[in-house]
Every structure is written in C-alpha cells, then in structure tokens.
Amino acid sequence: MNELALLRDHGPDAPEVSGVALTRARVRVMNEIEGHGLRRSRLVWGISVTAALAVAAGTGYTMVPERTAVVQPSAVKLVAFETPVFPLALRPRPAGLKAPGISGGFGDDSQGRTTPAMTAVYLSSDATSDVYLAVDDRYTPQGTLTQIRTIDLDGGTAYLAGTGPKTAVLSWQRRDGQWVTLSGHGRFGTEKAVLSLARTVADDPQPVPLQVRLAPAGWRLRAFKDNTILTLADPASAATLSVSLVPHLAYLSGPQQVTVGGRRGEIVRTPDGWILQVELVDGRGFRLQAPAQLTLDQVIAVAEQVSVGPV
Length: 311
Prior knowledge:
three-stranded mixed sheet; disordered N terminus; Phosphorylase Kinase, domain 1; elongated
C-alpha cells in the first residue's frame, strides 16, 4: 500500500462501510473490504490517519508537524493487550487462492456485549475468483428475500443467495453463537462451489499478523484491516492509537532518533500527539500514531510490544 492509497482508503474522506457490498464487490486487498456483519449500527469502522500532515512527494511524502503540542503529564496506564484471532480457515486452501488477509472489528450487540465481526479474504491469482470467509455472532441476510433460498448442508439448514453474475453467498450456523458466511466469486460463484468450500471450513485459529501487546488501560480494538493496519480506541473519548505496516519509512521533518527494541526509530510530535516509525529487518517498517496523552516513553513502550508476523 503506498501512502496516497493509505490516505485515500483510511483518511477523513474515506467511504463508509456497507455490509451489502461484500457479496457484490470484487475488491482487492488495497480496496475497502466490506465484510459480512460489519454493520454501521454495530461497528465504528475507521482508521485514523493524520491526513493534514501528509504531503504527496512522488514516491514518498513528508510529514510536517504544524505546531508543537503541549503534553500534560500522563495519567494513562499501559497494560497487556490481546489482539484478535480469526477462528477458521479453508483446509485445504483451494489452488489459486493466496493466504488470507484478515479484516474486521468489534462492536456491541443488543445485549451490550462486545462481539467480533471478522472476514478472511482469499484473493485469487486471476483477480476474479476471490473467496470471503466471514464470522459473526448472528445471521444477516445477504440479498433480498427473493434472492435467498434454504438448502441442505450436510443435514443442516443453510441459506444461499445469488447476488450477481458469478457470485454465490452461503450462510449457516456452525455452532451456537457462530454464523459463517462464505462468498464465492468467479469460478467459486456457484452453488456447487460454495457448498464444496463450506465442507472445507475448519477450526484453525489464525492470529492477525500485526500484533499490539501493550495498550492504554480500558482501550478497545476498533478495527483491523488487510493484515496491515490495526486501530485501538478509547471508549470514553475520541482518542485512537493506530499501527500500520508500511513498505518503507517516510521522511519526517525534524524527528528525534530513538531506539525501539534494538531497532532504529524516529518520532515527531504532531498537533494531535505522536508519530513514531520503526524500521524492520526486511526494509519495511511500521508506523505508530498515538494521542497526546501518552508520554514519549509510553509511545516507545507500546512500539516495543508491536510484532509483525508473515503477511
């Protein structure tokens, strides 16, 4: 993902998420992934990016703080944080499908419980035969009533919707509290194909590759996307903390050089808080955007607990 795409997809002008689009879209990893169950009423879906600080400059960009923020002594306490695990996988993974990118978020259900809505997107090598594997705690019809029919899935009830040319969507309750929606496109967009795929769905917990293991106390996961962006939010305010995996470090204006877990890092103060970027051994990097109520030492402490697995 280049910087302009990052700002376009996750900046303040990014489009809102629509659950219906999952069954119709042919989106690729760098577009919005609009998974089953990501309903606007349940989930605040957004990645906070300080767009005002980014100035396009060819292959890179410059982040220029407009002013120096005044940071009061921190009352924030950092605690251990657990990042999400996607519970299922296609086993075996069909030929021609790449390893999945995982996206999703958390919202409150009608009983006030915080529940996940997650989607694993298996992109195809032909760019048309993608498969979406979504998990939620309830069934949401995919399409109109006239498009949905009840079919048998190994002795159980499943709901099949054909929502467009070469698109088939199968939903079923796999166990109490776990509804699975499988969307097939292209060569997977038939009743026979999605039924065959459904029989390969297996319990196989997959941690999100981008992990944050330390966070302010009481903060919650807001969203994660494409294995490369993860955002936490303070339920009591509008404050967010985002970590994004980037192909290379950006140019920062007047950064302070720091060491993060033995790796080179750069940090700048912004009007809203901090931007810290850290170089990884393979030349990529990760960027941490933190609010002003964290101190410099706390931002570095959070960054030291960021880990990047295979993507």
